[in-house]
Amino acid sequence: MLESTTSAKSVLMQSLAASKGGLEVRNPADGTLLANVKAYDAVEVETVIAQMHAAWPAWSGLSAKVRSTRLKAWNNLILDHADELAQIVTLECGKPLGESMGEVVYAASFVEWFAEEARRAYGEVIPAHVADKRLLTIRQPVGVSAAITPWNFPLAMITRKAGPALAAGCAMIVKPAEATPLSALALEYLAHQAGIPADIFRVVPTTDPAAIGDVFCRTPEIRKLSFTGSTRIGKLLLEKCATTVKRVSMELGGNAPFIVFDDADIDAAVEGAIASKFRNAGQTCVCTNRLLVQDGIHDAFVAALARRVSGLKVGRGDEAGTDIGPIINQAGVAKVDALVTQAVAMGAEVHVGGGRHPAGAAFYAPTVLSKVTPDMDIFRTEIFGPVAPISRFATEDEAVRLANDTPYGLAAYFFTTDAIRMWRVMEKLEYGMVGVNDGLISTEIAPFGGVKESGIGREGSRHGLDEYMEWKYVSLGGIGAKS
Ligand code: SIN
Predict the structure, then answer these.
(1) Which atom of ligand 1 is nearest to the CA of 150?
(2) Is 416 in the pocket of ligand 1 (CB under 6 A)?
(3) Residue 285 among the catalytic residues
(4) What pLDDT digit, counting tens, does each position of 196-233 carry?
(5) Does residue 371 surpass a pLDDT of 70?
(6) Rounded to the nearest 5 degrees, what angle is found at the Cα of 243, between the Cα atoms of 241 and 249?
(7) Atom 6, ligand 1: which residue's CA is nearest?
(8) pLDDT band at 271 (very low <50, low <70, confident <90, very high)
(9) Which numbered atom of ligand 1 lies nearest the CA of 448?
(10) Average pLDDT over residues 307-328
(11) What residues contact residue 220 under an 8 Å CB cut-off, 6+ apart?
């Protein structure tokens, strides 16, 4: 159990370990049991929603300054408990401890950012079209909001939604991923310590995600659903949310291209590829999924990337020096292996890796493949593993065509030293986010989100607050008609 797997005996960890219930939480590195967490059923979640619906007007009625102060207190508590939170993330999600610490800081940054944005939810006064009217708009919270969050960023994907929701004056109920409820419960504990009421921010782990998703979609009191996960599940949720015409934010799958032009700085491109491909063992929505490399630089780039990848250390996230942790579960390992096996059978060449790793059943060797072609599944499927498939191209037009030939449009990357090409290609890429000579684009201050089947809406940045607010237009008549 949790307390015996770690030397830290903090109040936070002990309270999580003491929780008893039907949801088993296991360490993906070795399958050991970490905790049994209370699992909510549909009826219990309906009760929680009713309580939140009754409570949220009081929260939205607080001044923006008071909500901002509570959010700042939450941000401070997250940072004060950074070591413990990072250990929890590594235990239940597997990522290397350094990356988990990075995630804690990333998670806190959304809370801090939206604590500040809470005070800038301005309306407007519109110059009227007739003399005796005054027109204005105000912004109001949408109401009780629900979030369904993934296991790959078990803290940050919650705060990226809860930060703006709470700042706007909404209440938020979160169903965390079944694999990673402990991080979510730790965040909830700290939020309540910071003075955010229990009926305003709630975490409801479950063993029945479909039933809880149904409750979120069909309950009229839930006015907004924010989901991060697969496009397949996102489409189902969209259909269900239509029955109550709910506001939605969807952060869905990707198939990120990483283009290296002949004129790229090769060392910078290799480091960019490492950052964007191998973060969290390749298990992020914005991870590079396929590399497109121009003829003139192809062989040198493949050799340099393979050299760099062969130095990545695979192991448990809590082992010093680990670069690549486990894949979240056996289905994930099998999927990665099947994609590589098919690509190799169809003519792809393995430069490093190419199979499961001896560290254990959950580990896949960091892999570089060349001679990958668009007819291979690996070119079109979100890999979610540490595999870099490389295809070659001859012209800029061909690279853009290959990059855009996908239903997805989340993140794209390209490397070039030609300033004119930077603008030209950036404008042509049909993606919500583009990294130009940059493999790590995520930050709380910029809008995160995709186009096409990669999603709806933007998270983070000043636009993130809009997702949880409605504009109300007010027409004041009978003004100025008489003196
Ligand atoms: C994700 O994988 O969904 C989020 C990645 C990020 O925020 O960088």
Answers:
(1) 3
(2) no
(3) yes
(4) 999 999 999 999 999 999 999 999 999 999 999 999 99
(5) yes
(6) 20
(7) 442
(8) very high
(9) 7
(10) 98
(11) 244
3-state secondary structure the chain: CHHHHCCCCCHHHHHHHHCCCCEEEECCCCCCEEEEECCCCHHHHHHHHHHHHHHHHHHHHCCHHHHHHHHHHHHHHHHHCHHHHHHHHHHHHCCCHHHHHHHHHHHHHHHHHHHHHHHHCCCEEECCCCCCCEEEEEEEECCEEEEECCCCCCCHHHHHHHHHHHHHCCEEEEECCCCCHHHHHHHHHHHHHCCCCCCCEEECCCCCHHHHHHHHHHCCCEEEEEEECCHHHHHHHHHHHHHHCCEEEEECCCCEEEEECCCCCHHHHHHHHHHHHHHHHHCCCCCEEEEEEEHHHHHHHHHHHHHHHHCCCECCCCCCCCCECCCCCHHHHHHHHHHHHHHHHCCCEEEECCCECCCCCCCECCEEEECCCCCCHHHHCCCCCCEEEEEEECCHHHHHHHHHCCCEECEEEEECCCHHHHHHHHHHCCCCEEEECCCCCCCCCCCECCEECCEECCECCHHHHHHHEEEEEEEECCCCCCC
Phi, psi for 241 (deg, rounded to 5): -70, -20
**243 pLDDT above the threshold of 70:** yes
Residues counted in the chain:
483
Tokens of 466: 């809009």
Atom of ligand 1 nearest to the CA of 280: 2
Looking at ligand 1, which residue's alpha carbon is closest to its atom 7?
442
